[in-house]
Each structure stands twice: as C-alpha cells, then as structure tokens.
Amino acid sequence: MKSKSLAQVTDFDLKLLRIFKTVSECGSFSAAEGLLGITRSAISLNMSDLEKRLGMRLCQRGRAGFALTDEGREILRHSDSMMAAVENFRQQVNQMHKQLRGEFNIGIINNLVTQPRMKITHALDALRANGPEIRINISMMTAADIERGLMDGRLHVGALPMTSPISGLDYTQLYDEKSELYCSSKHSLFTATHEHDDSELMKVDAIAPSFRMAAEGIGMHQMLNCTATASDREGIAFLILTGRFIGFLPDHYAAQWVEKKMMRALSPRRLHFSSKIAIVTRSGRRDNVILEKFLQSLDL
Predict the structure, then answer these.
(1) pLDDT exceeding 70 applies to what percent of the chain?
(2) Which CATH number fits the domain that encloses residue 227?
(3) I need a surface site. Which of 51, 114, 189, 247 has the fewest CB within 10 A?
(4) Dihedrals φ, ψ of 259, to 5°?
C-alpha cells in the first residue's frame, strides 16, 4: 500500500479508529458485528477506508484468519493514547460544569476481589453513587501493564504490588497481603501433621511466579524446587489443584479452597510472606474530579 501523510484527524477518522479498536479486541470482523451493530461488509469497508486514510495495511484478513500487522499494532497503541487524550479533554470540560461525567479507567491485578478489606469495591460504589453518569472501565492487568497504562494516560489509577516503584508514579499502600504455601488435598503433603523442613520441601515440585515480587517473596521461593511457572495467582491455583505442585497464594484468595478442604497451608507459622498492595497514580497529574473522588473514598 502506497504511503501517504495524514493531513489532519477528523471526526470520521476517530469513528474509524474506534471501529478498528473494537475489531482488534474481538479478533475478527464477525465477532465485532454484535458490538458495533453493523454488518461484516460495512466493517470491511470502514477498515479499507481507514487503511486508505493512513496509507498503510493495518490487518490481514481472509481464510487464514484475522491478524494485526506490525503497523496495525503501532496504530492501535497510538490511537489508545489519542482516545485517552480526547477523553481527558471531555472530563476537563465536564469539570468546568461541576459534573461527574466521563470515563474512569482503572487497572487492577487479578484476584484482589476476595480481599476482605474491600476498599476498592467500596470506593467504586461511592463513586457510582456520586456520579451515576460515570462510565467505569476495569481492566485486569499485570503490574507492568498497569504502570505503562498510567504513564501513557490510558489509565487513571491502578492497584498493584509495591515491589519496585518506578519514577513518575506515586504509590500509596492500600493493603498488606499475606501469602502462605499451599498444597491440594491430592498432594502427599496434605495429611502430614509435622513442620516441613527445607530438605523435605526441595523433594516436591513447586511453582515460581513469573511476575515481580519483593525480596521477602523471592527468598521464600528460593527454598523451593520450582519446576513450573505461572504468570498470575490464578495460574498458581490451577497448578496447586492438580495435586502435583505446591505454591504460594494470598490467604484471602486460597480461603475458598481451604474451607472446602481442597487445600491447606504448609507450616504457616514459618512459610509465609507479606506483600504491599498499592494504589498508584501518575505523578504531577492534572486535576481530575472523578479520580479525586475515588481516592477520597479509599480513605488513604
């Protein structure tokens, strides 16, 4: 496709970019039909118009399926930032009218919903009560993705473990989360009643998280024979429940299986560590009444 310069961004371009984003998230034209309320042929025409406007191929489509090109992935990333800037402008205008309207984008690591001190849930409840027209968008993300989203403006706030704070973001402790070492009822260690020493633990397979941890958590995992990895806590739970692995989980998350006698903590007085879960915002951020209302409701 012949390259060309984009003279200006019009309302029509914004519409096409929103269609492109929806198609990318759905993974195909047919899957996007219901969300967009238009036919596949109309989606195809819109995508062709956008590619002509930008002078580049954004996706491959055909019998082989739908896939973004390298240029398509880059355009999607830039369009996310642009949409965030447009939304920020809309919020600024609404704030001039003292109205709680607009988008509120929050990124959260998974499995915090079982945390008994439901500060985030209560704050979202209070925010919705004060602003019924606020559109709340929650994304379950890795800590690194949350930090990137805050830095580029796609997210207003995030909740993640405070392991290695990065410059440009403000971290405030929200929860102190305790993790213990668990095995399932299928595991040979489940019925043992004695304290487990390091040599015994090294004889069984364990799970190493592939996400970042603080020094205390890293030290605990170095005592184990880690033969599998998991990208999040749910993945760790899946492997523990096979009965072939032991692994660390937050106690509030594991409680649902402990109560059903499907899991138990191993030597909990010795084998545990704590993580600080922080609420994170961008440093030097512009005034945003929706974000401030949310932060106030957290009682930090």
Answers:
(1) 95
(2) 3.40.190.290
(3) 114
(4) -65, -30
